[in-house]
From TrEMBL:
This is DJ-1/PfpI family protein. It comes from the Bacteria. Residues 4-162 form the DJ-1/PfpI domain. PANTHER family: ARAC-FAMILY TRANSCRIPTIONAL REGULATOR, DJ-1_PFPI DOMAIN-CONTAINING PROTEIN. SUPFAM superfamilies: Class I glutamine amidotransferase-like (SSF52317). It holds the Pfam family DJ-1_PfpI. GO terms for biological process: regulation of DNA-templated transcription. InterPro entries: Class_I_gatase-like (IPR029062), DJ-1/PfpI (IPR002818), INH-QAR (IPR052158).
Length: 212
């Protein structure tokens, strides 16, 4: 099973690395990090670089595509080379997936029209602009399209996919091997549970999602 993780300048590292740590452990999985051009990309913090080993144009017939998000994906919502590649490979993928604002990129490429999708909670209102139906759920599956909410939700998305692809035993083995047993110190990981003042402050100064 060939998995392609799309990378680009300004992406959020955990959007890709979290799912990679889970899905790369699937039996028979091979992974390629690919970008519009091959070479390093710098993530949103500016301190970390990831490497696209191949150009997207040199990658065909992936079984699974994952598109990560980032705080500002305006370039990727108008990136015709990325969109053209996504549209070209999508008919043959078994799974087309995204994490965080990666769903906005998929939607802008025309792949989520009329489909329900998750995204970062501050970006959900961007999806209808491209014909997608926003959902506040952490992981959303609509046919072969699987989308995750903000950043850390990529791990849950990957384990959900692992269970569907290889069965619950394999997925649970991966979860145990990576000791994914989240016990956050605060109940502030969702706008439904975080202090209202914090939610309001983040809405007023997002910092985590694209500006338009």
């Amino acid at each position: 099973m060939h998995l392609i993780f799309v990378v680009y300048d300004g992406m959020t590292a955990l959007d890709a690395i979290g799912p990679y740590e889970m899905l790369s452990r699937l039996p028979g999985a091979t992974v390629t990090f690919a970008g519009v051009t091959a070479g390093p990309v710098r993530t949103d913090t500016g301190a970390l670089r990831l490497v696209a080993d191949r150009a997207l144009a040199d990658c065909d017939a992936p079984d699974l595509v994952l598109v990560p998000g980032g705080p500002d994906v305006r370039a990727q919502t108008s990136d015709t080379a990325l969109h053209a590649w996504l549209r070209a490979v999508d008919p043959a993928t078994t799974w087309t997936t995204s994490v965080c604002t990666g769903s906005v990129i998929l939607a802008a490429a025309g792949l989520l029209r009329g489909r329900t999708a998750a995204s970062h909670w501050l970006a959900l209102d961007l999806l209808p602009r491209y014909g997608a139906i926003p959902s506040p759920e952490r992981v959303v599956r609509d046919g072969k399209y699987v989308t995750g909410a903000g950043v850390s939700a990529g791990i849950d998305l990957a384990l959900t996919l692992a269970a569907t692809i290889a069965g619950p035993d394999v997925a649970q083995s991966i979860q145990l091997a990576t000791e994914y047993d989240p016990r956050p110190p605060f109940t502030a990981g969702s706008p439904r549970t975080a202090p209202p003042a914090l939610v309001s402050r983040l809405r007023a100064n997002p910092g985590l999602v694209m500006s338009t």
